Amino acid sequence: MLPHKLIEAKFSFIMNIPNLLTIIRIILTPLFVIFMIQEKYLGALLAFTCAGITDALDGVIARWLKQKTRIGAVLDPIADKALLSSSYVVTAVTGMIPPWLSVIVISRDIMILLGVLLLFLFKGGVEIRPTILGKFTTLVQLGTIFLMLVDSQLSFLRAFFPWMFYLCAAVTIASGLQYLVVGIGLFNSNE
Question: What Gene Ontology cellular component terms go with this record (predicted)?
Fold first, then answer.
């Protein structure tokens, strides 16, 4: 194969539809933060919604079109954590959510990241798959931010805020504990 054809083939394998959606989500994340800082909540809502849609679509399309790639497996969780972490920091800083909720969400992600790092260092290449509770937690976390942004435009959800915050905190803590148990089990396994 000619060198330019080889480069083209590798690029087309890397730059497939799911990976393009993930890159769009990475680009939308700082745009969302900028809109939030400038108090342009409609723009923030649109950027966050588009980012959430790309999050939902990239995995489905990767499975459907059989376009799973190593780069996608690396970029997707980075894009997810960047969107979630930045959204919880900026909404706490702007006073839309209580700071304690942001601390819980980000602490869980840091714990998971440190656990994966320790498993990688001591066990080498252990795969941790998302649990159903972990996926539900991400849905609740994204949903909480989404509803806060919707309320910034329509102001009809305020009575539900405490319940949304408590639900988000509860599932975040529960899934954090679940991942901790899974991580300890993997760390103590003989494999």
Answer: membrane
